[in-house]
Amino acid sequence: MIILRDILINIILLFGLVFIISLTNSKIKLKNRLFDFIFGIVIGLITIFIMINAWQMATGVFFDTRTVMISVTALFFSPITSFIATLVAIAYRIYIGGPGVYAGVLSLITALGVGWVWKNYIQNKLKIHKYLQYYLFGILVHIFMLISQLAIPYPQNFEVIKNIGLIVLIFYPIATMILCIAIVNHEKSVTANILIEKSEKKYRSLIDNSKLGIIQFNSEGVIEIANQAFASILDAKKSDLINLDMLKLPNKQLVLRVKESLSGQISLYEGYYESSLTGKVFPTRVQFSPIFQEDKVIGGIGVVEDLTEQFKNQQQIRELTQLDNLTKLYNRASFDTFILNPDNMKELPIAIATFDINTFQIINTSFGYDVGNQVLVEIANQIKNITDDLDDVIPYRIGGDEFALIFTSANLDQANKITEKVKEQINQIDLFDFNVNMSYGIDYISDKGKSISETYNQALINMNSNKIYDGSSISIKTIDVIMATLFEKSKREKMHSERVSVIAREIAKIFELGTAFTNRVELAGRLHDIVKINIAEEILDKPARLNESERKKINKHPESGFRILSSVPEYLDIANIVLSHHERFDGHGYPKGVKGHNIPLESRIIAVADAFDAMTEQRTYRIPLTIEEAIEELKSNKASQFDPEVVDKFIIYMINNDINF
């Protein structure tokens, strides 16, 4: 019983090795040589302590678990550690001395050797369970340990083997196996901790480097981890977010989502959120997911997205699809969506007012499309100034020069007043060289007796009726403004237009076709170059001959002049005259190549008057022709460029009246 007690004490002392290993909190194989040397000395000292607590069978013959310690050390530790530990143990055993010294030293050497051989040549080849492998290893070590006892002097050696053989082969392999298992479990624990540490570092790196806000909270809803992205989203400090109790936040919807995650559900919060820490309001999406441990929720993770940019992009997309790009009013698609949606009948009564710019085509053609766009923007600004504070009035741009107002839950008198105010405000615009004028029409629906579309169509009819009365006089005034602007722009053009008008009038009188004919020719002569308002002054007054590009711009003016004048019903005849005043009698003129008497007589008269004035006009790059020279030029181009009859009548008039231009 005393022997068994001593053996158990020795076996317990073996686990000092496990204790020392655990103090390092690292893997056995991750050491450097200095550590291996030092650790070898430590294991050697543990082995000495085991030997101090050995049981003594006879004087100088001691038994303990040193072979277990050294063999396991050789199996798991580096050769340096194993050799140093064995050397320390041998030194102590020699120091003790006695008849068993050779057997003791030999036992240590065989334990070291068996451990080293097993480690390098046997353990990887055995396809058996680890526990059984360690047990067999323990048996082999202690068979050699028993053989080493033969070094004790005879006959005492056989007596020793007889007394301890059975005990050694029963208990020592088991002790070896247990110690091996303890070391392996330590290794697994350290490996698991290393993996956990690496995983935590990766997890922390993932959280810290994520562009999304990430938080981790415990089962009480208290934030334990928050990354910088989350702090930046809230404009807060990370330190202020740690230990924040989300279950006490004022946003009840968000609190509900947190509670759902803590109950084991994945929940989503989406919408505007106001931070209780900073007061920042922003659109966000937060997904809360539970964290489980052994089927129990121990907390959760929140992934936070700042949707500010996304909402901004969506707003821009809405603007592109719903707003007019130029005026920023709602566009035609938005207007059609409203009037075609039967659900909007719930907004009754509804009034619709439509507006149309008078003479807008003349403005675009005469002053250019950039000026036309400026007009549209200014009109839109005036409309917005009046309607922005009115919740029940929606402004639209529904066409090139058309606008509309939709009044919901409308009062007809109020709608009429607002519509009239819009017209008056626009008519007072004084930012341009011409007057801006709009006609409008309005209609009203108070019950389901007609549709919103029918109401819109009636508003258009009313607008067009008003436009008949408004448009004509405005158009004529606009033509006058255009000519005044042209004459102010170029004095030479003014003098040229006036001379052509007088010459053409005098030629027309000779034809004796009546006062209306003469007046028509005179007016056409005055307006024949109206579109030159759109040509740069440096081209109009260029002191040299025009280049090819400049000539092309000039040659387009008959067609452009036609477009301007034809927009005014009273000037339709004049427009046709202006269109043809550069046609040639032989059909080689422009813009259409009309020939002979297919060219209006008025145009043929203006062609002669225009050419005569151009030939006799002073230019810096050429000397003007005399009247006689100009007449000769007209004669030489009879029947080719000019109508012979018109040239003859012009010459007769010039000779009979002796006019000096």
TrEMBL record:
Record InterPro entries: GGDEF_dom (IPR000160), HD/PDEase_dom (IPR003607), HD_GYP_dom (IPR037522), Nucleotide_cyclase (IPR029787), PAS (IPR000014), PAS-like_dom_sf (IPR035965), Rev_trsase/Diguanyl_cyclase (IPR043128), Sig_transdc_His_kinase_LytS_TM (IPR011620)
Domain GGDEF span(s) in chain numbering: 348-479
Subcellular location: Cell membrane
Keyword tags: Cell membrane, Membrane, Transmembrane, Transmembrane helix
Topology relative to the membrane: Multi-pass membrane protein
Origin superkingdom: Bacteria
GO cellular component, one term: plasma membrane
One GO-annotated biological process of the protein: cell wall organization
Record has Ribonucleoprotein as a keyword: no
Molecular-function GO terms, alphabetical: phosphorelay sensor kinase activity
A Pfam family reported for this protein in Swiss-Prot or TrEMBL: PAS_9
Start and end residues of each HD-GYP domain: 471-661
Keyword Glycoprotein: no
TM ranges: 7-25, 37-55, 67-95, 101-122, 134-152, 164-184
PAS domain residues: 199-243
CDD domains recorded: GGDEF, HDc
Protein name as it appears in the record: Diguanylate cyclase
